Amino acid sequence: MGTSYDTTARPLQTTLSNSYVPGTNLRGEVAGANWTFLLPSMELGLVVCVGRPAAAALTMLSRIADRIAIVANADGRRKTLEWAESRGASNVLALRSEDLGSLPAADLVYLAEPGRRSANAAAISPRGVVYGKGRGPLPVSHVGRNSLPLHLTPFTGEMRTAVPLADPATIEYFVRHDLNCPTLDLHTAKRLLGGAGAPLSERGAETVGPASRAGGRSAKNVAKGILRNAGRAVLDGAAHAEAGIAGRRSLVRWLGRRATLLRPDGEDPGPPRYLREIAGRFDVNIDGCRWGLAAHGQYSSRKVLFFLFDADAPAGATPRWIVKLTRDPTLNGRLENLARGLETVHGIPGLEARAVPRAAFHGHHAGLAIVAEEAVEGAPFGAHSSWNAACTVAASAVHWLTELAAATVDPTPAPAAADALRRVFDRFTEIYDVNADDRRFLAEQIATVERADVAIPLVFQHGDPGTWNLLANDEGRVAFLDWEAAENRGMPLWDLFYFLRSFAVGCARASGTHGRMAAIEQGLFADGPISRMVGEAVERYRERTGLDAVFVEPLFHFCWMHRALKEATRLTPERLESGHYRALVRLGIARRETPTLRRLFRL
Fold this sequence. Notes:
CATH topology of the domain at 13-25 and 378-601: Aminoglycoside 3'-phosphotransferase, Chain: A, domain 2
Radius of gyration: 26 Å
Low-confidence stretches: 191-217
Oligomer: single chain
Strand order of the largest sheet: 3-2-1-4-5-8-6-7-9-10-11-13-12
Shape: globular
CATH class of the domain at 13-25 and 378-601: Alpha Beta
Helix content: 25-40%
């Protein structure tokens, strides 16, 4: 089983290089000013903001600019200085309108408050740009500038998508593929309603009631399901109304949200200059491409995406490239690992190349990592899945993950793998409150691996093969996206377990079971078609990789421990014990006697 990937890396090197600090990737604490990714360059000298930007936007601007001058009223200047002092942002100034004339030429003039457009006194450098929200011409000279009107979504708040207003084909693509961001979504509704209790999927395993454990549905759960469906129907209706506006060019022009970017004359009408320069280093020409930007998500780890289309591509065509950009330099390692992972996978003999995108170009700009992938044909996994044990696209995914592992087997002495698992265990017990019995049980799992007198086959690991990271086509072929967590010497079975967990949850939800833990109880632990599918998949995986049965149970428990480490960054310290994967670790230990686990562990 010859491979071309690096077998000198330590086991779980990508995983163990991270510290997993709770609360460092919280919902809502995402960098603002998504429009800065539209600028020709994000490496800025002086930025003049007419009006005080939102705090999230100011955070981004203070990072990418040498100096920021905020032109505001007395109250705005006071709040700006308080913000700058609290953040240690010494490059932020607060000025009056009459002070503008004393400033040098700016690289960027940002009209932060559409109602206050006194920017005429702000000089703009020859390569400088102006960005303003709202309709109508910007109150600055157009001499030496070209105007790029933009269609934005949602209607209010932080911009999440931007497409040139003169490009109806790309606007229509965003509508058809649900890339537009609705103004009112589930998380916004929860905030407006004051929040709600943690859903079942986020509570500990001990909170799953008898009805849920049996796969049943109590009257309370039925009522919750009715309310949930009614709420989603309202939100879906609002989203469809917005999509209807965005899907009609005349309505977009009159009712859509607008912004304008004034750029120096001669600036290519295609993607931003910094992307074109990085692509050019790889002999990839993206000049003149049609484009749209999507900056979805409430987590700082969520990437900003540029969808790039050939200039002459017909309406409805698939993008030629999808460019991913980090929002925070501390997360650059994920995209850098993505580029390495894609290169590695395409160097492994015998794999279906169409199942993985290729990296077209990559680099850094303004301290942020950038990777462009060639777009892969296909629809989201769920569009082709039958959500049952006979699902052909699920079978295709299981087969491909098994073949990836079989093609990259690296027989390794068991103590080396045990050492890596011990480091995962140590970090897990530092973060989470683990009772003495579970601690002893998990320590014994490490000892089981360490005592094994056979090698363990380490494998190249995708790292995040949930159903949401898969595409499928009409022939049932699948493609795996988002290789940011790839491991050169990863643990066997972890990819398979993670995919099957996400598939089991999808199957349970399709049958009317709500809540991830209830879905896992029904799909993974209770005897049934999905349970038997899991058992057969694991047996086939073991045959193809030479994995000894002694390793199956330790790998099962430590798979969820590994996921719990990643989840910790999205949880505040007080919510750690309510984490989904923390609950799954407890559940796996408590349900060792269930039919599925008895079958897997050969108890």
